[in-house]
UniProtKB/TrEMBL annotation:
Domain Rieske residue range list: 4-99
UniProt keyword annotation of Iron-sulfur present: yes
InterPro entries with a match to the protein in the record: Rieske_2Fe-2S (IPR017941), Rieske_2Fe-2S_sf (IPR036922)
Protein source organism: Streptomyces wuyuanensis
Keywords carried by this UniProt record: 2Fe-2S, Dioxygenase, Iron, Iron-sulfur, Metal-binding, Oxidoreductase
UniProt name for this protein: 3-phenylpropionate/trans-cinnamate dioxygenase ferredoxin subunit
Gene Ontology molecular functions: 2 iron, 2 sulfur cluster binding; dioxygenase activity; metal ion binding; monooxygenase activity; oxidoreductase activity, acting on paired donors, with incorporation or reduction of molecular oxygen
Length: 105
């Protein structure tokens, strides 16, 4: 599982998703509730960037139709999305946020 640097920890504002591209994969990095999560940036319902949505209760909301995805599991909490979005392992090393997109969990 190869971890690559996504961004600096100090660049992340609480509850403000940051979109990055890692090995060609769009990823939304989110700092919330004292943790950092990485979730695939494209909604499973349509081609919408999740990083443009709001974060609340460890979920990120798709702004288009309102499905929220759990940042820990990628599972949608309600319709219209029915399929989960991939989430990726995160490691923090100093100020570096490292994400592995090679193995989805
Ligand atoms: S595009 Fe995300 S819920 Fe429809």
């Amino acid at each position: 599982m190869a971890f690559v640097r996504a961004c600096g920890l100090s660049e992340l504002e609480e509850d403000t998703p940051k979109r990055v591209e890692l090995d060609g994969t769009p990823v939304s990095v989110v700092r919330t509730e004292g943790e950092v999560f990485a979730i695939h940036d494209i909604c499973s319902h349509a081609n919408v960037s999740l990083s443009e949505g709001e974060v609340e209760d460890c979920q990120i909301e798709c702004w288009l139709h309102g499905s929220s995805f759990d940042l820990r599991t990628g599972k949608p909490s309600g319709l219209p999305a029915t399929r989960p979005v991939p989430v990726y392992p995160v490691k923090i090393e100093g100020d570096d946020v490292l994400v592995s997109v090679t193995q989805e969990s």
